[in-house]
Specification:
Elements: H1 4-25, H2 34-38, H3 47-57, H4 59-78, E1 85-92, E2 99-108, H5 114-180, H6 186-221, H7 245-255, H8 257-279, E3 283-294, E4 300-311, H9 319-384, H10 390-425
Helix pairs in contact: 3-5, 4-5, 5-6, 5-8, 5-10, 7-9, 8-9, 9-10
Length: 433
């Protein structure tokens, strides 16, 4: 007869096995291929296409385009001659037939190059608006490419988790069969199950990170959140042989839109100074008209009326306006000099960061990940031969996953550092239209 203690042990064992089966029943089939869910290397969206979409749909950038177009229209307006003024007046005798009527037109002559100075100001204001458009393009393209790379990195981490989960799940199923055959202790099956569920949990977090990153990317490029989006590309094409620091700096000083904007503002200040000088000089308005004078039925006269009205210089010949524009130019010049210093520093830092990121990535790839992969293979074989424990193998596998994620982060760092160099020098590759 079986004792109460033995019955209790069998009951506990049955409960334990039931719980194991219940937990195992919760283990899903292998997860969908994340690479297929979020990437399409044939029809997916590239980073260049993402930039074009953002420039097409970003309302702030479209506003800059409208402002630039309006400024160019104002150049045509400024080139128009001053409008002719037409006036009419008359004089009628109260109790009689005598009267006088006059029609007269007047036109400002805009002497001293006034119109030319006005057009120059409008042209340079239009240049400033166009440089603001280029600056906006650079900012949007940089933002989109950064977000695109961050999303690719999160997808890579999810794919890695999927791969490790599939391998671990397969190992769990093999151990489960061995446990049923009595070749392996049930504890080992339980330990594998813990690792499977741990990776399932990690995958849930990684998957949500990818979905959130895609939503952020959709927001940046201006497409609705419900629109399907798959990406094309990877983080491995970031290696570039950049020229020397001196060459990159010279390119940045010549092409950076923020610097060109400051130089355009200096030129605008010069144009305003010249316009203020012209406005303070002598000017004239020509008049031409017709006058009819009737004294009686037999006495009538017709006249051609002409004349000149002169605008004389007033007091200090716009000296205050000239001095104000000179001060404005000096301030803009200081901003430009400071901007050049900032650009030099940004180029140097971006190139240094890129170079260091490339070296760090290679160290992790060759000296860490490849070695960790070899270590994991050795530990796996010793575990299969019974020379090492399951805990040692799982610990080595977790290290490998950690190092692989470190490599993904290193690849992302190279990707972002390359974008920063392109932004710093305003490289043509940053914006593709």
């Amino acid at each position: 007869m079986i004792s109460n203690r033995t019955s209790f042990i069998f009951i506990l064992l049955g409960v334990f096995l039931s719980l194991q089966l219940a937990v195992f029943a919760q283990i899903p089939a292998p997860s969908p291929n994340s690479a297929a869910l979020y990437t399409d290397q044939t029809n997916g969206m590239t980073s260049d296409e993402a930039v074009r979409s953002a420039l097409k749909n970003n309302d702030g950038f479209l506003a800059l385009l409208k402002e630039a177009e309006a400024a160019e229209r104002m150049v045509d307006q400024a080139d128009q001659r001053a409008r002719i003024n037409v006036g009419a007046n008359g004089l009628q005798q109260t109790f009689g037939k005598s009267h006088r009527y006059t029609i007269q037109a007047s036109m400002p002559l805009e002497l001293g190059g006034r119109r030319k100075a006005r057009v120059l100001v409008a042209e340079r204001e239009a240049i400033i608006k166009r440089k603001r458009v280029e600056q906006g393009e650079s900012e949007i393209a940089t933002q989109v490419r950064r977000k695109f790379g961050e999303t690719l990195a999160k997808i890579s981490s999810l794919i890695l988790t999927d791969e490790m989960l599939a391998v671990t799940l397969e190992s769990y199923r093999l151990v489960q069969g061995r446990v049923r055959e009595g070749k392996t202790a049930p504890l080992e099956e339980s330990m594998w199950l813990v690792e499977v569920n741990r990776l399932r949990s990690v995958r849930e977090v990684d998957n949500s990170n990818v979905q959130i990153a895609l939503l952020d990317l959709k927001s940046v490029i201006g497409i609705p959140p419900e629109t399907p989006l798959k990406l094309r590309g990877d983080l491995n094409g970031s290696l570039t042989n950049f020229p020397t620091l001196a060459e990159l700096t010279n390119q940045a000083l010549k092409t950076r839109p923020d610097l060109l904007l400051l130089r355009a503002m200096e030129n605008l200040a010069d144009a305003k100074i010249e316009k203020a000088k012209k406005d303070g000089k002598f000017d004239a308005t020509a008049t031409l008209g017709y006058q009819r004078l009737r004294i009686s039925d037999s006495v009538q006269f017709n006249y051609v009326v002409f004349g000149m009205n002169f605008t004389l210089p007033y007091r200090n010949n716009s000296r205050d306006a000239i001095e104000a524009n000179v001060l404005d130019k000096q301030a803009t010049e200081k901003r430009r000099l400071f901007g050049e210093l900032v650009v030099r520093q940004e180029v140097a830092k971006a190139l240094t960061h890129y170079t260091s990121a490339v070296r760090a990535k290679e160290i992790i790839r060759l000296g860490v990940v490849e070695q960790a992969e070899s270590n994991l293979e050795v530990v796996r074989k010793t575990y299969e031969f019974g020379s090492s424990s399951l805990l040692e193998y799982l610990a080595e596998q977790r290290k490998y996953i950690e190092f692989k994620n470190s490599l993904i982060n290193a690849e992302l760092a190279v990707y972002l550092a390359k974008i920063e160099v392109q932004r710093a020098i305003f490289a043509p590759e940053l914006i593709t239209k």
